[in-house]
Amino acid sequence: MKKILLISVFALLSLNYAFAQAQIKFDKTTYNFGTFSEKDNIQKCSFSFTNVGDAPLVINQAVASCGCTVPSYTKSPVAPGEKGTIDITYNGKGKFPGHFKKNITVSTNGTPERVRIYIEGTMEEAK
Fold first, then answer.
1. Tens-digit pLDDT profile for the chain (127 aa)?
2. Beta strands 42-51; 30-37: pairing state
3. Rounded to whole angstroms, how far apart are CA atoms 54 and 115?
4. What is the 3-state secondary structure (H, E, C) of 66-113?
5. Any idea what the Cα angle at residue 74 is, between residues 68 and 76, rounded to 5°?
6. Could you tell me the CA-to-CA distances from 36 to 75, 119, 123 in Å, in that order?
7. Burial of 46 (0-12, 13-18, 19+ CB in 10 A)
8. Residue 21: which residues within 8 A CB-CB, separation 6 or more?
9. In this predicted structure, what is the pLDDT of residue 61?
10. Nearest-CA neighbor of 29 among 99, 111, 102, 123?
11. Which residue of 29, 43, 108, 125 is surrounded by the most CB atoms within 10 Å?
12. Residues 7-42, buried b or exposed e (16+ Cβ, 10 A)?
């Protein structure tokens, strides 16, 4: 009898664990640098996110659509209810002046598995 009760308790606990899921929610998914000069070609911003799920959230990777955009992110697991950041550096050196829009694909262990965040702006020719 004890064996059956013990197996039932473990089964219930593992079921609870199986349904626990991390969930990422960004404060905003687009950042606009506005207009800046070619002389100030390096622009930086941060995206803040919250784990609104009930399991630790892990950012597996963040990949930019272009080599001119470099993301860095929170490497340690983000506990439920806690916040993390993804910092983005855009380097417009050698790029044509004008409007740009770049995306960063964020892969996680939660739902959704992939999220895209965007940066945009207008780099004016140096005078």
1. 666 655 555 555 554 445 789 999 999 999 999 999 999 999 999 999 999 999 999 999 999 999 999 999 989 999 999 999 999 999 999 899 999 999 999 999 999 999 999 999 999 998 8
2. unpaired
3. 19
4. CCCEEEEECCCCECCCCEEEEEEEEECCCCCCEEEEEEEEEEECCECC
5. 145
6. 31, 14, 5
7. exposed
8. 53, 54, 55, 110, 111
9. 97
10. 102
11. 108
12. eeeeeeeeeeeeeeebbbeeeeeebebeebebeebe
> What is the distance between the alpha carbons of residues 31 and 51, in angstroms, rounded to a whole number?
20
Query: Tokens 């960004």 correspond to what residue?
Result: 26
What burial letters (b/e) apply to 92-101, b meaning 16+ CB within 10 Å?
A: beeeeeeebe
- Other C-beta atoms closer than 10 Å to the C-beta of 103 total 17
Taking only Cα atoms into account, the Rg of the chain, rounded to an integer number of angstroms, comes to 21
Q: What angle do CA 72, 74, 77 make, to 5 degrees?
A: 150
> For the whole model, what pTM was predicted?
0.81
Task: Output the six-digit token pair for 32.
Answer: 């606009």
Query: Strands, DSSP E only, in 21-74?
Result: 24-26, 30-37, 42-51, 59-64, 69-73
